[in-house]
């Protein structure tokens, strides 16, 4: 689908850990409602790129969401701009219930409310992930990998994002579960949700991405248009 | 975790692609240093522990002889007493990460044990030392059998409570001389004059320290040390590779406690008296600083740290009055700047040099790889069988 | 009967003390998995500081309290900025079980040293907030300060419990302790929670020191003992449940008083430590000590 | 495909738990080395593993697949002993190992790897592997004074690393290594003790396609003289290397048999999500 105005603009962003340069002045832009997949082998800076875009690691360069420049090292600003990361390995709160995990996705909106009100505010996202319905009062730590991934996505949706950053959403998921995640992603791409997807497996990425870029040794290789 | 990949990707992928061609990759790769690995295996006898033991005894003995019974000599001997304790703590807290706060308690067992046995039952210093070691072993086995069942944080808290009531018991009990403690503890080895006694006892103390250091180093560098390394990182991992957590935890606890008791005995005989102070929280605090400031994994650091800190706390009145603030600030600085302590910083500086040394071994070892690496690829275990 | 009632009163008073410090430790541990071993020293600063301001500097009592609490809050803020910030936001320094104990432990050393240098070594007691003779109901006597102690303990325990139980912010605070990254990606500022709650508990502890000091009196060395009492109470409450910590504290206090009254006065707190020791060893999972904090 | 009784062959009269599992026919030539009979484990009311019975012959490569939460990892934990079963029995070499600790099971030849990398940071790959191959793992700590086993252990460790083609990384701290190198190091650590059975939990997760093929080769060679049970979501890889497949669905063993039949089984279709499209 043709990209309208750029929703997410990444300009010469670079990340380095000590001497090691993980991301080397990467520039790419994602149009509103577009889904761009970043592929490439592990350890070539894909994850560093998205975590930097989400403001979790210190970075060089600028990141703009809907034209608004995001300050470096402030995940809160990114969240307020509607930019939500679903990190690799999920990072749920194992000792809290699934309900609380999902509910806290809406923190930036509901921080002042009482827990019950906040839940009523976001409970709608459950419709997207019916299998979570019966697990709401279970501790997130006791969920299986697939269920946790669903919970992580639900938490992200509870934040009412306008830009989704997905880091390896299918890592360690059974194929059919992965397929469900991708069906869901596909549905997302039909909406005006802007998606930046990090995926190690090109075959998966092709399914949903409008555009695929490849990162190698911290650099983005020239974008090639995918068959999708 | 995946980021550092960039550094040695070339190496690993070359080797992975060409499976068994480890040697080629090894010889080719600038970073991979099989030399060091091979060197490890060639050296079947590890000289370091013995060397350390002998070195400490000789140097320490000479230093004390040079001080010839001065007040400084007494301070150093006291420091040596603490050093024996901290050496044990390096194994227990530093290397095995068994965060137990019970050393001051066992220091007390050693000190009070010596005092009671010598003043009330007429033991001589040698007998009382052996008796104290036996006593500490039994007590630490009893306590350890209970506390080492608890996971990390629980163990720390349980042992955090120990000093409290032991201190109370000691101060309440008139048999242990309540607050004034026990006077008239014998020196290890008395001589004609006060000075000579101090020097001779000092030499015995240094000998004990040497033994302690040698023992700890030997254990840390042994196969058991490797097991301790694995379980201190991750206990689930430890048991999955056949480490008996219960056994190792208890052993480490007992070893640390017994060394603490020996240290206590050294203190008692150096000062000639025992006071409840050895049991107080502040004693435990000082011990922890003696270990954490120089670097909690370094035996040498712990020894030097113990002696230096003991010297500082006793020598200058400024430090001894403002001890709290100074200790606190140093502790925080160490924790923030260099968690591995001074030794960690030094090691990092020396690290580069050892790399160069390893590189010089590479070519030689690469040859060694070729003559035996070839069969490696056939079947996981076979290679291992050939190796032995 | 009267003896029993008076023991009960004394027990509830000391129990309130245990409980509140336990609650302070517990709520902060829940947020950042660090034990605040300096909590007792904040109480000490509260008591001694106020006493000095009122008695030697002749400030009005209320002003003295305000100034003192402000100072304590400032110290807490400084410590967070200068130490915790680097350790937990910049990822510098020691972590794991070492971090659990030693940062606040260092702070405690510094505060004691400073207190000794500034206030000397004598015993202080802040003036009583609610002065007057002990309240007597029939032959049941309880000091007014004691009543304040118990009331303050129960109230603050309830407030902390409700905060964690019912508010989004409270859940967010718990989330920080569960997963720092996980909380940051939804816009929860874990550092802010850590700092706020550290300061709040520090001030609360100081206030409690002021209220309590007329009963016991404080020296510059009172801190560690108080902190350990807090650790004990928090220990009975899995280190994460402030409400439970207060309840546990009250129970311990009463049990201790009864032991002291009917069994032996010398070893009653030995018995208390022994009780926690037993629980820690026999049922660590009950205390949520199954695994080390991340 | 024959059913295995819920109770060990010789344990007669024990009440069989409902729902028989399925397994490989163990011949006299290949006696069973590791087996579980009707093991059940539930977490907070959720039945993670539901009376599963299976027998692992002495050599060969066996695939275990299933949805997330089907109970594969829990089953591994039950077999390796890091989790106790609520009911059922585990047997190692025909001996009843139900009550054995993870340590004892490891020492009697059950090795495992985890989904996530578990290595001692700051230490070399060599030391990480060597820790797992002391000739006398239960040595008394002071025994190491006159018999420190480090040197021979490092010899074996180094050979094991060699055999997986990463001997040249032996002297390297594990922290700086690629995920692949770390996984291979863990594999070496699991193998260096000459285990009878290797339980590999998603050994290829996070690896690229080429790296997976390398790992697959390694696993195949390993399974030449021992039993290897692999949990893996990459069904193509798994079916290509395994000679026998187990599939778990909602805590139960839903399929057990050879690979061809598996490819045509409904379970396979379900895992592939074919019915979804």
- Biggest chain-to-chain interface with counts: B-D, 80 and 81 residues
**Number of continuous helical runs of chain A:** 8
Estimate the helix proportion of chain B, in percent: over 70%
Based on secondary structure, the structural category of chain A is: alpha/beta
| Biggest sheet record of chain A | 7 strands, mixed
Low-confidence stretches of chain A: 224-228
**Main beta sheet of chain B: strand number and arrangement?**
2 strands, antiparallel
User: Beta-strand percentage of chain B?
Assistant: under 5%
Task: Report the radius of gyration of chain B as a whole number of Å.
Answer: 24 Å
What ranges of chain B have pLDDT less than 50 throughout 5 or more consecutive residues?
1-42, 367-388
Task: Report the mean per-residue pLDDT of chain B as an integer.
Answer: 78
DSSP strand (E) fraction of chain A? Answer: 25-35%
Main traits of this protein?
heterotetramer; A: 228 residues; alpha/beta; 11 strands; globular; D: 277 residues; Rossmann fold; 2 domains; 6-stranded mixed β-sheet; 4-stranded antiparallel β-sheet; 10 helices
SSE layout and pairing:
The complex is a heterotetramer of chains A (228), B (388), C (294) and D (277).
Chain A: E1 6-17, E2 20-31, E3 35-39, H1 46-53, E4 60-65, E5 68-69, H2 75-80, E6 83-86, H3 98-104, H4 107-110, H5 115-122, H6 145-158, E7 163-167, H7 175-190, E8 194-198, H8 202-208, E9 211-216, E10 219-220, E11 224-225
Parallel strand pairs in A: 3-8, 3-9, 6-7, 7-8
Antiparallel strand pairs in A: 1-2, 1-4, 4-5, 9-10, 9-11
Chain B: H1 5-17, H2 22-28, H3 34-42, H4 48-67, H5 71-95, H6 103-121, H7 125-147, H8 152-172, E1 182-183, H9 194-220, H10 223-233, H11 235-240, H12 245-271, E2 273-274, H13 281-292, H14 299-315, H15 317-321, H16 323-337, H17 341-373, H18 380-387
Antiparallel strand pairs in B: 1-2
Helix pairs in contact in B: 1-2, 2-17, 3-17, 4-5, 4-9, 5-9, 5-12, 5-13, 5-14, 6-7, 6-12, 7-12, 9-12, 13-14
Chain C: H1 2-32, H2 39-55, H3 61-89, H4 96-119, E1 135-137, E2 140-142, H5 144-166, H6 168-178, H7 180-184, H8 190-216, H9 222-235, H10 242-263, H11 268-282
Antiparallel strand pairs in C: 1-2
What does this entry look like structurally?
The complex is a heterotetramer of chains A (228), B (388), C (294) and D (277). With 228 residues, chain A is of the alpha/beta class. In chain A, 31% of the residues lie in helices and 27% in strands. In chain A, helix 3 packs across helix 5 (115-122) and helix 3 (98-104) runs parallel beside helix 6 (145-158). The longest helix of chain A is centred in the C-terminal third of the chain and has 16 residues, at 175-190. Chain A is globular. The model of chain A is unreliable at 224-228 (pLDDT under 50). With 388 residues, chain B is mainly α. Chain B folds into two domains: 48-323, no CATH class; 338-372. The model of chain B is unreliable at 1-42 and 367-388 (pLDDT under 50). Chain C has 294 residues and is mainly α. Chain C has a single domain, classed as ABC transporter involved in vitamin B12 uptake, BtuC, CATH 1.10.3470. Helix content of chain C is 74%, strand content 2%. Chain C is built from eleven helices and two strands. Chain C has helices spanning 2-32, 39-55, 61-89, 96-119, 144-166, 168-178, 180-184, 190-216, 222-235, 242-263, 268-282, and strands at 135-137, 140-142. The longest helix of chain C is centred in the N-terminal third of the chain and has 31 residues, at 2-32. Chain C starts with a helix and ends in a 12-residue tail after the last helix. Chain D is of the alpha/beta class and 277 residues long. Chain D has two domains: 1-109 and 215-277, Rossmann fold (3-Layer(aba) Sandwich), CATH 3.40.50.300; 113-194, P-loop containing nucleotide triphosphate hydrolases (Rossmann fold). In chain D, a hairpin with a 2-residue loop joins strand 11 and strand 12. The longest helix of chain D has 14 residues, at 150-163. Residues 10-23 of chain D have low confidence and may be disordered. At the B-D interface, helix 1, helix 2, helix 3, helix 9 and helix 10 of B face helix 2, helix 3, helix 4, helix 5 and helix 6 of D.
């Amino acid at each position: 689908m043709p990209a309208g105005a750029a929703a997410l603009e990444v300009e010469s962003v670079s990340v380095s850990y000590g001497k090691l340069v993980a991301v080397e002045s990467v520039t790419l832009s994602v149009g509103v409602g577009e889904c761009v997949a970043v592929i490439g082998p592990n350890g070539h800076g894909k994850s560093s790129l998205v975590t930097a875009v989400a403001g979790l690691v210190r970075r060089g360069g600028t990141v703009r969401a809907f034209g608004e420049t995001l300050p470096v090292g402030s995940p809160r600003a990114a969240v307020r701009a509607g930019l939500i990361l679903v990190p690799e390995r999920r990072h749920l709160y194992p000792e809290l219930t699934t309900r609380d995990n999902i509910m806290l996705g809406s923190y930036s909106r509901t921080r002042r409310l009482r827990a019950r009100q906040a839940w009523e505010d976001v409970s709608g996202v459950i419709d997207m992930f019916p299998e979570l319905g019966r697990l709401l009062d279970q501790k997130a730590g006791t969920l299986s990998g697939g269920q946790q991934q669903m919970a992580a996505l639900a938490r992200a949706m509870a934040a009412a994002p306008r830009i989704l950053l997905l880091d390896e959403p299918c890592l360690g998921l059974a194929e059919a579960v992965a397929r469900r995640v991708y069906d869901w992603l596909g549905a997302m791409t039909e909406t005006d949700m802007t998606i930046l997807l990090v995926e190690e497996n090109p075959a998966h990425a092709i399914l949903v991405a409008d555009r695929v870029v490849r990162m190698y040794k911290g650099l983005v290789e020239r974008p090639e248009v995918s068959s999708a | 975790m995946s980021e550092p990949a960039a550094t040695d990707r070339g190496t690993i992928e070359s080797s992975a692609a060409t499976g068994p061609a480890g040697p080629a990759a090894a010889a080719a790769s600038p970073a991979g240093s099989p030399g060091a690995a091979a060197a490890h295996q060639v050296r079947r006898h590890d000289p370091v522990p013995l060397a350390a033991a002998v070195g400490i005894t000789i140097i320490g003995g000479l230093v004390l002889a040079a001080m010839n019974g001065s007040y400084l000599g007494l301070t150093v001997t006291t420091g040596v007493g603490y050093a024996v304790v901290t050496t044990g703590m390096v194994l227990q807290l530093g290397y095995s990460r068994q965060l137990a706060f019970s050393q001051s308690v066992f220091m007390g067992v050693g000190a009070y044990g010596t005092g009671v046995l010598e003043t009330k039952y007429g033991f001589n210093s040698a007998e009382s030392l052996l008796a104290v070691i036996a006593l500490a072993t039994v007590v630490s086995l009893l306590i350890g059998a209970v506390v080492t069942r608890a996971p990390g944080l629980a163990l720390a808290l349980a042992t955090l409570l120990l000093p409290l009531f032991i201190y109370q018991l000691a101060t309440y009990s008139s048999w242990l001389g309540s607050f004034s403690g026990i006077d008239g503890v014998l020196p290890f080895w008395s001589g004609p004059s006060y000075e000579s006694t101090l020097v001779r006892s000092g030499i015995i103390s240094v000998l004990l320290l040497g033994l302690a250091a040698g023992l700890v180093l030997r254990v840390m560098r042994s196969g058991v040390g490797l097991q301790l390394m694995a379980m201190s990182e991750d206990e689930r991992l430890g048991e999955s590779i056949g480490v008996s957590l219960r056994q190792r935890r208890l052993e480490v606890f007992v070893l640390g406690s017994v060394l603490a008791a020996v240290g206590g005995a050294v203190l008692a005989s150096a000062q000639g008296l025992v006071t409840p102070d050895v049991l107080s929280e502040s004693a435990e605090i000082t011990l922890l600083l003696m270990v954490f400031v120089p670097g909690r994994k370094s035996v040498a650091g712990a020894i030097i740290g113990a002696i230096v800190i003991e010297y500082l706390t006793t020598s200058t009145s400024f430090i001894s009055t403002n001890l709290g603030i100074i200790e606190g600030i140093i502790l925080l600085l160490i924790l923030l700047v260099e968690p591995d302590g001074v030794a960690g910083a030094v090691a990092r500086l020396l690290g580069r040099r050892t790399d160069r040394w390893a590189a010089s071994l590479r070519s030689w070892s690469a040859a060694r790889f070729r003559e035996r690496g070839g069969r490696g690829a056939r079947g996981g275990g076979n290679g291992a069988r050939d190796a032995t | 009967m009267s003896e029993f009632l008076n023991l009960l009163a004394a027990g509830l008073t000391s129990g309130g003390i245990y409980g509140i410090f336990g609650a302070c430790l517990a709520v902060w541990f829940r947020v950042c998995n660090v034990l605040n071993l300096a909590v007792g020293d904040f109480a000490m600063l509260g008591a001694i500081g106020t006493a000095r301001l009122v008695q030697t500097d002749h400030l009005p009592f209320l002003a003295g309290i305000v100034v003192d609490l402000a100072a304590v809050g400032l110290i807490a803020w400084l410590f967070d900025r200068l130490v915790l910030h680097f350790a937990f936001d910049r990822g510098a320094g020691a972590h794991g079980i070492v971090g659990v104990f030693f940062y606040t432990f260092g702070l405690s050393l510094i505060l004691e040293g400073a207190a000794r240098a500034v206030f000397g070594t004598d015993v202080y007691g802040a003036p009583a907030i609610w002065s007057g003779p002990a309240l007597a109901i029939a032959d049941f006597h309880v000091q007014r300060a004691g009543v304040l102690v118990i009331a303050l303990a129960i109230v603050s325990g309830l407030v902390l419990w409700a905060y964690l139980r019912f508010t989004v912010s409270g859940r967010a605070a718990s989330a920080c302790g569960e997963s720092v990254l996980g909380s940051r990606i939804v816009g929860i500022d874990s550092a802010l929670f850590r700092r706020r709650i550290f300061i709040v508990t520090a001030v609360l502890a100081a206030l409690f020191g002021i209220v309590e000091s007329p009963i016991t009196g404080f020296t510059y060395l009172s801190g560690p003992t108080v902190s350990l009492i807090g650790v004990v109470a928090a220990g009975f409450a899995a280190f994460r449940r402030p409400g439970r910590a207060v309840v546990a504290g009250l129970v311990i206090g009463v049990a201790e008083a009864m032991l002291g009254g009917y069994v032996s006065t010398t070893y009653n707190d030995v018995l208390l430590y022994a009780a926690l020791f037993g629980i820690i060893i026999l049922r660590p999972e009950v205390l949520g000590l199954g695994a080390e904090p991340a | 495909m024959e059913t295995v009784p819920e109770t060990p062959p010789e344990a007669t009269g024990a009440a069989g738990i409902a729902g028989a599992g399925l397994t490989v026919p163990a011949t006299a030539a290949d006696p069973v080395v590791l087996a579980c009979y009707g093991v059940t484990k539930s977490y907070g009311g959720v039945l993670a593993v539901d009376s599963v019975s299976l027998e692992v012959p002495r050599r060969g490569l066996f695939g275990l697949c299933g949805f997330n939460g089907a109970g594969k990892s829990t089953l591994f934990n039950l077999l390796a002993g890091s989790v106790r079963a609520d009911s059922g029995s585990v047997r190692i070499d025909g001996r009843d190992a139900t009550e054995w600790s993870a340590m004892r099971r490891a020492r009697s030849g059950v090795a495992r790897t985890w989904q996530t990398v578990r290595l001692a940071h700051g230490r070399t790959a060599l030391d990480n592997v060597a820790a797992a191959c002391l000739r006398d793992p239960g040595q008394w700590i002071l025994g190491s004074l006159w018999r420190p086993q480090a040197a021979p252990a490092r010899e074996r460790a180094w050979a094991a690393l060699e055999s997986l083609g990463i001997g040249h990384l032996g002297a390297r701290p594990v922290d700086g290594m690629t995920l692949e190198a770390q996984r291979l190091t863990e594999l070496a650590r699991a193998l260096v003790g000459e285990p009878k059975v290797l339980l590999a939990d998603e050994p290829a997760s996070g690896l690229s396609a080429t790296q997976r093929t390398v790992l697959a080769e390694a696993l195949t060679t390993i399974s030449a003289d021992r039993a290897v049970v692999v949990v893996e979501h990459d069904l193509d890889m798994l079916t290509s290397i395994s000679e026998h497949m187990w599939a778990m669905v909602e805590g139960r063993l839903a399929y057990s048999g050879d690979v061809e039949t598996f490819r045509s089984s409904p379970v396979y279709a379900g895992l592939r999500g074919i019915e979804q499209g």
